[in-house]
């Protein structure tokens, strides 16, 4: 889901609850959307609700004739109550934020953590304090990279590429450090690729500041990361997936060339894959929430990988 869509949906549902019968054009104009974008949001709201995912658990929304009616959405108006696991995860994330070298408001953060610990109870505070967070594979990578970018110095990296399961040496002129989808990235001119590249900092195994000034070419421009880091190209393989309602999040999370509604909440999506390995991992993660339609060889690879994983599991039991 894009970074601005979730807040919009959280605002949209209460608005529709307090304005029964609101018209599609009026609501779209109020939220700064096209009518198609609003309908897409309503289709997503229709699949949201309480655990159980039966018709009685999900929000009921209709827009026939342009009039929007919403029901069974009272739960969204109730105050949020975090479980121990949810509060622990939030506390871990806040403590990780405090470890970032560029973070300034540590006093404010400390007060927020203290209030959350008090509200969540002793269980969450104990669990979260026992979790150690590592910002990157190289412990000082984030601070070193940030300082090198500030001073305009070239970097030497050893970078782990999960798609090929290998560590590659790189020399990079850093432009900036950005946070996208919960991960910090170094963006800079890579002399190995002779192009701009994004490097996840938690995959940088070693980093060294070289005694060379950064001198990226004129065409080195920062990427627009508002829609995520991944940028497919025409040379990447085209993959088709069929998604059940439980797998529709793929269409929001990854850039798709085509998205087709198949009815009953199912989708067919077409997206570009530079490396089949990540599609295999995606398919295994989806489980019965999706399947590979094409290419056939990729579907066979997913089946073989799942069979091998199952065999390993059964032999270990």
Describe the strand arrangement of the main beta sheet, using strand numbers.
7-6-5-4-8
Radius of gyration: 23 Å
Mean pLDDT: 79
Oligomer: single chain
Distance between the termini: 37 Å
Order of helices and strands: HEHHEEHHHHEEEEEEHEEHEH
* Strand coverage percent: 25-35%
User: What is the global morphology?
Assistant: globular
Number of domains: 4
The residue ranges in which pLDDT falls below 50 over 5 or more consecutive positions are: 132-136
Largest sheet: 5 strands, antiparallel
- Helix share bin: 25-40%
DSSP helix count? 10
The number of E-state strands comes to 12
Class by SSE composition: alpha+beta
Can you describe what's shown?
This protein is α+β, with helices and mostly antiparallel strands and 317 residues long. The chain contains ten helices and twelve strands. The chain has helices at 5-18, 24-30, 35-45, 84-99, 106-120, 122-129, 141-151, 249-253, 276-286, 296-316; strands at residues 22-23, 60-62, 67-71, 153-161, 166-180, 183-190, 195-200, 204-213, 237-243, 258-263, 266-273, 290-294. Strand 4 (153-161) and strand 5 form a beta hairpin. The protein is globular, with a radius of gyration of 23 Å. It starts with a helix and ends with a helix. Mean pLDDT is 79; it is low at 132-136.
Please provide a brief summary of the model.
The chain has 317 residues and is of the alpha+beta class. The chain is built from 10 helices and 12 strands. The strands form 3 sheets. The protein has a 5-stranded antiparallel sheet, with helices on one face. Strands 10-11-9-12 form a 4-stranded antiparallel sheet. The protein has a 3-stranded antiparallel sheet with strand order 1-3-2.
